[in-house]
Amino acid sequence: MKNLKKLFWVFNILLITLLILSRNLNNIDEILNYNFGRYLAKGYILYKDINCIIFPTFPLIMGTMLKMFGEELLIYRFLQILILVLIEILMIKILKKLKLENCFLPYIIITIYMVCISVFSLAEYNMLNCLLLLCILILELKEERKNNFLIGLVIGLAITVKHSVGGCILIAALILEFFQENSLKEKMKNIFLKILGTIITCAVILSYFLVTYTFF
Questions:
Q1: What is the pLDDT of residues 128-156, one digit of tens each?
Q2: Lowest mean pLDDT among 93-102, 162-171, 195-204
Q3: Is residue 95 part of a domain?
Q4: What domain count does the chain have?
Q5: Closest CA relative to residue 106, chosen from 172, 82, 114
Q6: Residues near 66 by Cβ (< 8 Å), separated by ≥ 6?
Q7: Is the residue at 216 inside a domain?
Q8: 106 in any annotated domain
Q9: Cα distances (Å, whole numbers) of residue 31 to 26, 36, 43, 77, 151
Q10: Using an 8 Å Cβ cutoff, are 204 and 57 in contact?
């Protein structure tokens, strides 16, 4: 089984890399997101020099990576591959938490899922939010109070990537607290920590608008 897992890893990474690097440049979302990151890498300012309707988190991350490693489309696609590989790693960790790592069916499902994402979608802000959601699930499965603040920080990041998705994650995380076997006081503490973490991350990310004078 261990050799099969290694083979699974190698096969999936090679398959993801091949599918993304061989994809035609005909997707408007990919072109837009790549250009947002490229312009930021050149020193342009979102919402002032670049007409952008999404929150700044994803373009800022991609812009920073393109600034560090190069502004070519190939680098942007390698960043997409990295996000997908991280998603797969977290999926495997969740399987281990649920004690399903020795079942072969989940691995087949993960492979099919990763192929579908690589072919029909992009590792853009939606995939980044998928990665953040998996981080939240892993923290939730640990069931430690200190993780509630970390969960809030990650939720805040998800909101500033795409507010509609992040908002749904926040609501689900707060509702989940009422299904925990804790006292009402403990539930309220956990909810407070999650909301506090969310507010802090949102405040830090949205300070970009104030720093660049693009709030109004």
A1: 888 999 999 999 888 777 789 999 999 99
A2: 93-102
A3: yes
A4: 1
A5: 114
A6: 37, 38, 40, 41, 75, 76
A7: no
A8: yes
A9: 8, 9, 18, 11, 32
A10: no
